[in-house]
Amino acid sequence: MTTTLNINGKTETVDAAPGTPLLWVLRDHLKMTGTKFGCGVAQCGACTVHVDGSPTRSCITAHDTLGDVEITTIEGVTGNAADAIREVWVKNDVPQCGYCQSGQIMAATALLAENPSPSDEDIDVAMSGNICRCATYMSIRRAIKEAAG
In 40-142, at which residue ranges do the beta strands (DSSP E only) sit? Predict the structure, then answer.
């Protein structure tokens, strides 16, 4: 099945079976490997991308159900929130193993784009669907607060 998707501001045409998760279209068909496979059931957040600006789990989102939306991956996320998050992530050595970080960054940039001055509770709610095996949650919260400042 041939599908046309708008990914990172570019029109991409892919030939994938109906129902193929967006994650596998990104990774296998388009070779965009920044979005990670974690659990496959939308529980860990490693596969988070933005669909029309909203954090979305690409592991359970069928590519052929997306229609005319803007999909943004870690490779294409831009703007003030993304720049601030990247800067504080590096400055504060937020990642340890790094596996979950693309999903964490995608969730954090969506939060700051919607709420530029989040409270600790706002951060906890927005980031609650993103699991970090290394338990860097306090570093992540501190970095988001700094990026918001």
Answer: 48-51, 54-57, 70-72
